[in-house]
Amino acid sequence: MSAQLVAALDIGGTKIAGALVDGDGGILVRARRPTPAREDGETVMGAVEAVLAELMAGPLWSGVTALGIGSAGPVDASTGTVSPVNVPGWRGFPLVERARAVTGGLPVRLVGDGVAMTAAEHWRGAAQGYDNALCLVVSTGVGGGLVLNGRLHPGPTGNAGHIGHISVELDGDPCPCGSRGCVERIASGPNIARRALENGWRPAPGGDPGAEAVAAAARAGDPVAVASFERAARALAAGIAATATLVEVEIAVVGGGVAGAGEVLFAPLRRSLREYAALSFVHGLTVAPARAGTDAGLLGAAAAALPVARDDAPASLPG
Ligand SMILES: [Zn+2]
């Protein structure tokens, strides 16, 4: 086991998870609270403080050298603030300052959840060993992150690689972000389901009308369900191809609930990539399912924190 030990927080709209993580990605201590997402900002912070207090109560805490936070976005790492879409009580909330105060002045690194997932996949998942990678989270929204030249590339505010809001349809539907024709507007789970419903697909009576049910129908051969996944795959492929053409990523790792559709998504995604990633230098682009699993948020927050850990840090660090 590496001597380095960091604390990690994974903050989402439904849960706040915390852990102590060693330098090999081992999770030694865990804590967790539901996110009081509809409450005021101080109540949400209270849940974060409860998770931190639980981590700090154990004997390992004295060895912790930094805190990494992966949060639902948008985040602004340059100001240390977060404004998660699904936590309305937090708008420009000074999460870094508050977390630093609770932890007695530990170095804190904040990244968006897409960047955290990317850090996890590069450290312990499907992007391991790749110096240039794009990772995508396709679920309720579409997020992502970049590894460039062997290092995590969060960008100045911690949002770089946010592929969900690249426009792939110039005259497409307006997107809640203010643009139109975004990847997310076509490829997110709710949009896959919406399009299938609009075109006549129906869930089984009493069944859930979500993307998972559309995936099951596609697997059973329902042409409307298949078409909705194919359209999502084309949007993802166009975004991935654009990214690969710009910065020469060698692998695109796709995770999130919608990636659970498996070949229903990945087969048309590979096919569409051959169409959109046309130049010779992007022909070798690999697409792979995410591998870091349910702890990706925590591992990614930890990986993001390791380079700022207060220590005689080893030369080789993830991220
Ligand atoms: Zn958008």
From TrEMBL:
Pfam families: ROK (PF00480). InterPro entries: ATPase_NBD, ROK, ROK_cs. Coiled coil: none annotated. Belongs to the ROK (NagC/XylR) family. This is ROK family protein. It comes from Streptomyces pyxinae.
